[in-house]
Amino acid sequence: MTEFNAYTKEVLKRFTNPKNFGEIKNPDGVGQVGNPVCGDVMKIYLKVDKKPEKIKNIKFQTFGCVSAIASSDALCELAKGKTIEEAKKITNQAIIDKLEGLPSIKIHCSVLGASGLKKAIEDYEFKIGKISKKSIKDDDK
Ligand code: FES
User: Fold this and answer.
1) 110 lies in some domain
2) pTM score > 0.85 for this model?
């Protein structure tokens, strides 16, 4: 069995043709996180409509594996069009379900996108003055 046989068709589709890969110029929020398990890095960019407050656009960049790329692409799709409060509730499991599963040794890769989104939302809320302090360490911008 090759390594790719371990992945669902949905993972491979998103890995080979991610729709949400890239950078957003002048983003309203940016979150960058590193995966402590493997050292891979993920960056999430947000553009937010103010009234109603919804995620208008979301993109990702990563130095990551097949699962990280597919997970981030799925995350972007899950978050786009959601309110900030709805987006905060997106779980790793929702990402994994969207991918129709991940090999168990690759579950940690889905955490990268979800953490990046949380950090990007926090960056957005800090910029608009909704929160006065970031709770997530801002060590990597
Ligand atoms: Fe690093 Fe998947 S192995 S994110």
Assistant:
1) yes
2) yes
Q: How far is the CA of 64 from the centre of ligand 1 (A)?
A: 5
**Which residues lie with the beta carbon below 6 Å from any ligand 1 atom?**
35, 38, 40, 64-65, 67-68, 109, 112
| 78/125 Cα distance (integer angstroms) | 20
Q: Say if 83 falls within a structural domain.
A: yes
Q: Which pLDDT tens digits describe the chain residue by residue (141 residues)?
A: 456 678 999 999 999 999 999 999 999 999 999 987 888 899 999 999 998 899 999 999 998 899 999 999 999 999 999 999 999 999 989 999 999 999 988 888 888 888 999 999 999 999 999 988 777 665 444
Residue 140 lies in a domain: no
CATH code of the domain covering residue 88: 3.90.1010.10
Give a yes or no: residue 107 inside a domain. Answer: yes
- Number of domain units in the chain: 1
Q: Which domain holds residue 37?
A: 2-127
Q: Which amino acid is at 70?
A: A
SS3 (DSSP) at 32: strand
